[in-house]
Amino acid sequence: MKVAVVGATGYLGRSVVENLRSDGCEVISLSRHPEADGAYGALEADVTMPNLGLGPSSMDALRGTDAIISCFGSVSMETNPESTVGLHVHGTEHVFDLAARLGTVERVVHVSSVLALGRAEGELGNRELSRDQSFRNWYEYAKYRSELIARNERRVPVNILRLGTLLGPSRPDIIPLSGGPTALLAHVLRGLPLALVDRGRFPIYASDVAIAARAINMMMKRGEYGITATYFDPELPDLCYVLEQLSRPWGIFPRLVDARVPTWLQRIAARRLGVYEELSEYSRPLMTFGRDILTHLGDLALESRPDYIFETGRVLRDGGVSFETGGLAR
To answer: pTM of the prediction?
Structure first.
């Protein structure tokens, strides 16, 4: 099976490529930095450009592509609408345009995020997307818009997989530090108190990046299409536990306190303490999923690898990541 992976040299993309190759697939890696792949079939591509900026020779290399996996884009809570929404919306449109143009693509797997649901209330399942919700930041809105595009695509068959916050060992230089709990590491490792509702004892839907890659492979192979599924660690580690495990390699225990102040006051405190204001929005529980949310993944063994959260911190520490006044430095 010939599979093109868009965003192949990113944190998730690398795991996806590795999983596909170990499964015997012929993989074409598409990214802005193809040299980071270092394997045959790596092509330079830019999702912000029509046709991904691919020239005739690159299009020839894509002839006969059976499936496309779209997993481009990194998590950042500081981004503006032009860069974030433009990247995800136009990028998703361009990926589907390419799939339709190739003519041989039998399946596109669009990687979405649980954050596409924003502040949606009530018990949520895989079918829900538009619930008159508001959004904490432009990243959430961008993921919502891009999933909406994927759901409305009619030229090629599409399956959608929503993922939670990705964690797990990888190359230290590609593990994101700008979004999710890793963005709080600089604050926690400096020994500063972090105010969280109920001291962070609520799930953030952490997802083992290696299992997420397997789930994507499974979604690609499914005989049905038009499916939306969700993957996160079924053990539901809470934010408190995640921060404890991430900071363990440094021998530091997070100072987490119960937040009993309004969100606007938390944002002011976060600014003064050097924490991204946007992350203060995640100091309280996110959405609530129904008990059967993971069933669409079928027989996939969802159990995460032992110590995948701790190993993320260890790789960052051993990779030279240090915490300084202004944040984390590689």
So the answer is: 0.91
